[in-house]
Amino acid sequence: MPFSVLILGAGSATPVLNRHPSSQLLTYESENFLIDCGEGTQFRLLENKVRPGKLKGIFISHLHGDHYFGLIGLLSSLNLGGRTEDLLLFGPKGLDEVLTLQFKYSQTPLQFRILYTPTDTSASTLLYEHPCFNVYTIPLSHRIPCAGFLFQEKPHKRKLIKEKITDAIPFDYLRQLKNGEDIYDEGGNLQYSVAEYTLPAPPPRSYAYCSDTRYDESIIPIIRGASLLYHEATFQDDLAHQASTRFHSTAREAATIAQKANIGQLLIGHFSSRYKEVDTFLTEAQSVFRNTHIAEEGVTFNIPSTPSTDVSLLPDT
Amino acid sequence: MPFSVLILGAGSATPVLNRHPSSQLLTYESENFLIDCGEGTQFRLLENKVRPGKLKGIFISHLHGDHYFGLIGLLSSLNLGGRTEDLLLFGPKGLDEVLTLQFKYSQTPLQFRILYTPTDTSASTLLYEHPCFNVYTIPLSHRIPCAGFLFQEKPHKRKLIKEKITDAIPFDYLRQLKNGEDIYDEGGNLQYSVAEYTLPAPPPRSYAYCSDTRYDESIIPIIRGASLLYHEATFQDDLAHQASTRFHSTAREAATIAQKANIGQLLIGHFSSRYKEVDTFLTEAQSVFRNTHIAEEGVTFNIPSTPSTDVSLLPDT
Q1: What is the ipTM of this complex?
Q2: 8 Å CB contact between A212 and A142
Q3: Chain A residues close to B105, C-beta within 8 Å
């Protein structure tokens, strides 16, 4: 079951030519969801040969422009492209008001419905239930109401051992075995055991997206053990104080969160435009949490199904 | 006195990768003004090495997204960049409301003032008076309130003939001569004649910007004799009917307006994304009005000071 995230933009607020404002495309099986939608995101989708018409839903973390100014353009283009299918939209209170006003003045009659759910930016709550995964908000510590998103895959069923399965076993029994239920005959004797006929289910995968936030350990219990974490890293150690006063994080802080939350793999991005080279972000983060990668634009990261194997360099305090 | 327009974007509403939404940079001497501001315009400014901080004013023709969705991002970046200087903003009623709402939710305290003037989209009125030029609205025939802009240079003074000017001529006399006033001595005899000491002033230049509009001859008296006209040409002859019902123009119609209005030079753009080649637009327009050019992105067009020399192929009916 493919579960991946394509980085469309991982720049910060100041516009530069070599990075784009925040946006990521989350793919689960064949379904696409957008996470944040900075200015120009619809062009990033085109560049990456993603058909925007296939988007099922959009998650907006907060209403700073570099995270959502591309949304109205994308929605307008979806409409122009003839979309009629409902679109899910999640974001802080006020997002609907902004969109409604813009559609009013462009006199755009929308041919599809936008099913909007405001996000709870003050507590981690279940935001959306998909047949295969749940999405929870991650309250972040930023200048304005802001919530990241935890995409938590639902537990898989156990896997049948093909070699052991014969036509003699009724279909209902197979279903029960996959659900971890032993099968007993009428006399109460064990007929088919879960242990013999199935393999353990692969561990559920999860992706935590933490866009703009100050270092905040209160998110750790929410994201604990996530397979993949994207955490912003706007600054480096040299500007740690500035990171704090501006409600942003350093690369070291992002890595510390990953280490303390026992994350499988860390992606960092949202680098301040004042830094011309990004390698130093990686060095700083990897000194704390080795399994760190740059959220490089145009790159797809698979959400790993293996649990964390990172041996952190910092003790878990 | 440099007077030019740089094409930043000349695509139409459907997003494509090889064209960008509408935006142009008008430069008069050393001052910059933006005309329309489609999504991504701030990145086009960067690409063209234009410092957005130096913008004096922004003119928005109408509130369809491909003409203004880049505005809020640009204004946010100007603020982030530390701008404190007032910014002039012109556009249809409602534009201020959209911006105010977005700034409210991003909790952005603006460090500069936006001096907003709503445009009159129903009649041609004086919108802005600059020391060197006036800007008038050009009511356009589109699906929503829409006005183009006529940048009309003020008459120049006559030019002094350097070789004839000596220190003996008082400064006040020079000023009078440049204003076209002959100088008489106390006895009423002609002392310095305008004809002898000056050359005629160069004709004032003008630029007419007609973004989205159906073919509409009512604009002809407003733009008559303009040095340079940008007129949209979304379709070609094959889709003339569609052009009309969608409130857009064909290349032939744009050229017919130019021909009938005795324009000096015509730029066409806003081509529908269904046409992969733009040369056919040019051929179609040039069959009516020879001095037509494609509004190619990244190209600067000088506003010519010479009057129209185009020999049109159609009779002026």
Answers
A1: 0.90
A2: yes
A3: 63, 92, 94-95, 97-98, 144
